[in-house]
Design a protein that fits this description.
about 400 residues; alpha/beta; Immunoglobulin-like; binds alpha-D-galactopyranose; EC 3.2.1.22; Glyco_hydro_b
C-alpha cells in the first residue's frame, strides 16, 4: 500500500470517528433543573387510555400544578400496539383510538408536554413491544407524534451492554431532531451515574418504589421499596448529579396511601435530593392535603434551585438525620428527618457546628457566620445565633431555609 493511500484511509477513518461523535449527543438544554411532571404507572399500571391521559392533563392545570412548574404528562408502559409491516410501532388502537399525535396535540394545547415509555429490550416490562433493533424507527415515530420525553426501561435486555444500549437510543433521539428528555430507567443495576452524564437527563438509582415508609415489598424475583430504603440507597451518589443529569429516586407515591406526614416527608426528601419530581397519583381526585404537598412552592423552589446541588447528609444520629442542600445566593435548605415511630425533640446549638461540602465547596462555621431561618411549612422564623429546639413528628420532617444575615 502506498503512503498516499494509507494517508487517505487514515483521513476516512478519522472522519468516520468524528462523524460518529458529532451525533453522540443528548439535547443539552433540557432538565437544567430536575424535571417536574406526572406518570401513569404508580396508580394505573397497564390501564392507560387517551381519555384518562387527557383528564390528567386537565387536572394538572386545574389543580394548580402547572402554575407551580409541573410540565410533563408521561404515559408509562402499555400504550403500545403491534409493529406494522415495516416495523413502525403503533399505538394500542382500542385504548388510544385517536392516535398519539392527537393526544400530544391536546396535551400541548394545555401548555404541557408529553412523554412515552419504551424499553431497551425486545419487550417492555409488561410484555409490549420494546425498542431493541428499532431504536431509530421509534425515535423518529415519537418525534413525528410530538413527544417530548422518553423513559427507557431495562426489561428483557438479556446480555446487551447497558451503556451502548442507552447511547444508541440517545443517538436515535438526537438524530430524530426533536428535543426529548431522555430518562434512563435501569434501576441502578449497572451504575448509570458512572457513565450516563452524556447519555441521559436522569437515571433511576433503584428498583421500583412502593407506597410505604420503611418496607421492602417482595415480588419473588424482585422487590420494590419504601421511602427510607430508597433514600438510603442514594449514599455516595450526590457527586454525580447536576444540571442536566439527575439521580432519579423514582416516581412519587404522594397521595397513594401513606399518611400525610409520610407524604410530606417523601416529597421533601425527593425535593432536597434534587430528584425529578414526577407525581404518581390520580390528579383528578386528590385530597386537599395531597394537593397542598405537591404544589408546595417553597419545597419546589429547593428542588428547582439553579445551583443544582443534591443534598448531603450532614448529621446522622441513627433514627434522626439532618440533610443540607446548598442553594443559590449563599442560602441553604436544612431538612430534619425523624425516621422513628415516635415524635422527637432535637436540640441544635448551631454555634458548635461546622458544615463542609466537598462537592459544592461550601463551608460554614456557624459560630462566625449567622443565618436567619424560616420553616417552609409552618412559617416559623428564627436565627442561627440562637440554639434551635425543634419537634419533628414521627415519620416526618421539618425543613428550614437559611438566609445569610
Ligand atoms: C419497570 C419500571 C417501572 C415501570 C414498569 C412498567 O418496573 O421500573 O417504573 O415503568 O417497569 O412495566
Amino acid at each position: 500500500m502506498t503512503n498516499k493511500l494509507l494517508l487517505s484511509l487514515g483521513f476516512i477513518a478519522a472522519a468516520l470517528v468524528l462523524g460518529g461523535q458529532a451525533h453522540a449527543q443528548k439535547f443539552d438544554q433540557l432538565a437544567k433543573t430536575p424535571q417536574l411532571g406526572w406518570n401513569s404507572w404508580n396508580t394505573f399500571a397497564c390501564n392507560v387510555n387517551e381519555n384518562m391521559i387527557r383528564e390528567m392533563a386537565d387536572a394538572m392545570v386545574s389543580s394548580g400544578m402547572k402554575e407551580v412548574g409541573y410540565e410533563y404528562i408521561n404515559i408509562d408502559d402499555c400504550w403500545h400496539g403491534e409493529r406494522d409491516k415495516q416495523g413502525f410501532i403503533q399505538v394500542d388502537k382500542k385504548n388510544f383510538p385517536s392516535g398519539m399525535k392527537a393526544l400530544a396535540d391536546y396535551v400541548h394545547s394545555k401548555g404541557l408536554k408529553i412523554g412515552l415509555y419504551s424499553d431497551a429490550g425486545a419487550t417492555t416490562c409488561a410484555g409490549r413491544a420494546g425498542s431493541r433493533g428499532h431504536e431509530y424507527q421509534d425515535a423518529v415515530t415519537y418525534a413525528s407524534w410530538g413527544i417530548d420525553y422518553v423513559k427507557y426501561d431495562w426489561c428483557d435486555t438479556k446480555d446487551i451492554n447497558p451503556k451502548s444500549a442507552y447511547a444508541t437510543m440517545r443517538d436515535a433521539i438526537y438524530k430524530a431532531g426533536r428535543p426529548m428528555l431522555f430518562s434512563i430507567c435501569e434501576w441502578g443495576d449497572n451504575k448509570p451515574w458512572e457513565w450516563a452524564t452524556d447519555v441521559g437527563h436522569s437515571w433511576r438509582t433503584t428498583g421500583d418504589i412502593y407506597p410505604c415508609w420503611n418496607c421492602e415489598h417482595n415480588h419473588g424475583s424482585w422487590s420494590s421499596w419504601g421511602v427510607l430504603p430508597i433514600l438510603d440507597k442514594q449514599a455516595g451518589l450526590r457527586k454525580y448529579a447536576g444540571p442536566g443529569h439527575w439521580n432519579d429516586m423514582d416516581m412519587m407515591e404522594v397521595g397513594n396511601g401513606m399518611t400525610e406526614e409520610e407524604d410530606r416527608a417523601h416529597f421533601s426528601l425527593w425535593a432536597i435530593m434534587a430528584s425529578p419530581l414526577i407525581a404518581g397519583n390520580d390528579l383528578r381526585n386528590m385530597s386537599e392535603a395531597t394537593k397542598k404537598i405537591l404544589t408546595h412552592k417553597d419545597t419546589l423552589a429547593i428542588n428547582q434551585d439553579k445551583l443544582g446541588v443534591q443534598a448531603m447528609k450532614w448529621i446522622d444520629e441513627g433514627d434522626f438525620e439532618i440533610f443540607v442542600k446548598p442553594l443559590e445566593k449563599g442560602e441553604f435548605a436544612v431538612l430534619f428527618l425523624n425516621r422513628a415511630d415516635a415524635a422527637t425533640t432535637y436540640s441544635l446549638d448551631w454555634a458548635f457546628h461546622y458544615m463542609k461540602d466537598d462537592i459544592s465547596k461550601h463551608e460554614i462555621f456557624f459560630d462566625k457566620k449567622k443565618f436567619n431561618w424560616r420553616d417552609i411549612w409552618s412559617d416559623e422564623k428564627g436565627s442561627t445565633a440562637e440554639k434551635l429546639t425543634i419537634n419533628v413528628p414521627a415519620h416526618g420532617v421539618r425543613v428550614l431555609r437559611l438566609i445569610p444575615q
